[in-house]
Design goal:
By secondary structure, the protein is an alpha/beta fold. The chain has two domains: 5-175 and 237-341, Rossmann fold (3-Layer(aba) Sandwich), CATH 3.40.50.11440; 181-235, Alpha-Beta Plaits (2-Layer Sandwich). The protein has helices at residues 16-27, 56-68, 89-98, 133-137, 158-163, 169-176, 193-197, 222-226, 238-252, 295-304, 309-315, 320-328, and strands spanning 5-9, 38-42, 72-77, 106-108, 117-121, 128-132, 140-146, 148-150, 154-156, 180-183, 204-206, 209-211, 232-235, 260-266, 269-270, 282-284, 288-292, 339-341. The strands form six sheets. It has an eight-stranded mixed β-sheet, sandwiched between helices. Helix 9 (238-252) packs across helix 12. The chain is globular, with a radius of gyration of 20 Å. It binds iron/sulfur cluster (SF4) (2 copies). One iron/sulfur cluster binds at residues 183, 188-194, 205, 210, 226-227, 229, 231-232.
Length: 343
């Protein structure tokens, strides 16, 4: 397995569609596809209002290239665990259309209400993980990611696109529950605003203080954002990085070896992830487009090309955690990969 990462710098004095095609040729992006393969093109179609997802023209070209080698491509993503514009297949498909993803069938990987998945055993912090059905059943996959910051995992790239993006609601919640939630009772005024905002009607307010011991808690940020006293915070955020890697391992176990390839766009690198309609400021300069056949190497390559301490400081999590963990689980790749520039 070649784990060299190829990179086209984001230089708009060149035709970037042509340059990315040279990138795919050099990296062998479509070598994982055989004639007749059902090919999942895994992407994030963007939350409405957030303009920083991968631009449709590049995805259009990826679809064209998959067809050229005889694959049957379909766009896919899994529904979100939180209730917004992509939490069921109907809303998700409409969001995909509104954001310009009409170049191939968009199949919501986990079904209408996240009911379609395969439970698989995995390694690492999770013992098992739900993999979205259309991804578990695909013959090959091109993982198209947008590199950006993330409040809980430091950053999101290919590993997060696998671990969180290829799992249904139950799988996402399983990963989120690896993180802790703490309520500082010295700050809590017992106002109940957290309970009003919480989709599970948690936490309980007992003797004028919020308390949350429920196994139903999803570790979503709703109560944290809703608390006027800043009394609620996450703990053990590093566990989510481990959970992402563990889930990613489970997702990859549903594919035969060498059937998954990765393309990552490091442009418009915002503080927060594409799931938010308001992803915050752009905090790092544009880098370019990476291609690799290793999720470990492609994410490590991105982090080596930016000052990722900026992302660490924004989230208080070490971005490299998920990369190191996935390699430790046995997925091939390098935490210091060779990067070949396409110029
Ligand atoms: S919103 Fe904050 S201050 Fe109000 S009850 Fe919940 S934790 Fe306490
Ligand atoms: S993290 Fe907060 S808002 Fe989310 S389910 Fe748990 S208590 Fe409710």
């Amino acid at each position: 397995m070649c784990v060299t990462v190829h990179l086209v710098p984001w230089d708009t004095s060149s035709n970037l569609l042509e340059e990315t095609n040279r990138l795919y040729d050099e990296a062998g992006t479509f070598d994982c596809i055989q004639k007749g393969d059902l090919v999942a093109v895994k992407l994030h179609v963007g939350e409405l209002g957030n303009p920083n997802y991968v631009q449709p023209c590049f995805v259009h070209d990826i679809i064209r290239r998959v067809k050229e080698v005889g694959g049957k491509p379909f766009l896919t993503d899994s529904n979100t665990a939180y209730h917004a514009q992509r939490s069921n297949a109907y809303d998700h498909m409409n969001t995909a259309l509104m954001n310009g993803f009409n170049m191939a069938p968009f199949i919501v990987a986990d079904g209408l209400k996240s009911e379609n998945f395969r439970l698989v055993k995995t390694k690492g912090i999770l013992k098992e993980i739900e993999v979205s059905g259309a991804i578990a059943e695909a013959d090959a996959m091109i993982v198209v990611s947008h590199c950006k910051g993330h409040e809980l995992s430091g950053f999101g790239g290919a590993i997060k696109n696998l671990g969180m993006g290829c799992t249904p609601r139950d799988g996402k919640i399983r990963q989120h529950r690896s993180v802790g939630l703490e309520i500082d009772t010295s700050k809590c005024q017992g106002c109940g605003k957290c309970k009003e905002a919480c989709p599970q009607h948690l936490p309980d307010i007992i003797e004028g203080k919020a308390r949350n011991t429920s196994p139903l808690c999803m570790r979503c940020p709703v109560c944290i954002e809703g608390c006027p006293m800043e009394a609620i915070s996450y703990t053990h955020k590093e566990n989510l990085c481990r959970a992402l890697a563990s889930a990613a391992f489970g997702v990859l176990s549903t594919f035969k070896p060498s059937k998954v390839s990765y393309v990552s766009f490091a442009k418009d690198i915002t503080q927060y992830c594409d799931c938010l309609p308001n992803p915050g400021k752009i905090i790092l300069g544009d880098v370019g487009v990476f291609a690799s056949n290793s999720p470990v190497s492609i994410d490590a390559a991105f982090l080596s090309k930016v000052d990722y301490k900026v992302l660490n400081e924004a989230s208080n999590v070490d971005c490299m955690g998920q990369v190191i963990e996935l390699k430790a689980l046995g997925i091939e790749g390098e935490v210091k990969p060779k990067i070949k520039l396409i110029v």
